[in-house]
Amino acid sequence: MERVIPLLLDAGLEVIAVQNPLTTLVDDAAATRRALARATGPVVLAGHSWAGTVISETGGDDKVSALVYIAARAPDAGEDYGALAGGFPAPPASAGLEHADGFAQLSEDAFLNDFANGVDERRARALYAVQGPISDELFSSHTTHAAWHDKPTFYSISRNDRTTSPELERFLADRMGAHTIELESGHLAMVTHPREVADLILLAAGRS
Prior knowledge:
Elements: H1 5-10, H2 25-38, E1 43-48, H3 51-58, E2 64-70, H4 81-85, E3 97-100, E4 103-106, H5 108-115, H6 121-129, E5 134-135, E6 153-158, H7 166-175, E7 179-183, H8 189-192, H9 194-204
Parallel strand pairs: 1-2, 2-6, 6-7
Antiparallel strand pairs: 3-4, 4-5
Helix pairs in contact: 2-3
């Protein structure tokens, strides 16, 4: 979100970037709730990829006014998201996960060509250098709440996504009745299309 945040700040929004530990859903949700406790006024929660699960779990907070999903997961409460995703085309990036000591990371090839497709190579390599390890147990977590049932939702679909199936993204956006945009982007739309992503967040915040 490094390219989106300055645009939001320029528009007068307070921005808090949550650093998910990527250990368990409970840990990630706790990190978001700590950020919510610090925030003032109505809050728009924006989540990319896995963070869509986190904002679905935590978005029921009274401070939250809207949810923005960026090529993101959006499970229903208790849903087996892996089984749901299995009904859609398998994205190429999944074949590049490398596991060691209870954690997984994408191989360099999968990160550059599938996770960061569409990002210029220099920036993609810098992002690869700061890739965080993901607990092997993380993606099998089940949410206890799906805030998208109750809050206004916005979804940015990445048409050229090689990490999450675009068809799955369209299904999720349609299921939640989200205000939806589609971008000619890979998985990292906030890197390649920061203006469009920022505008969607500003729309969710009533600043369009």
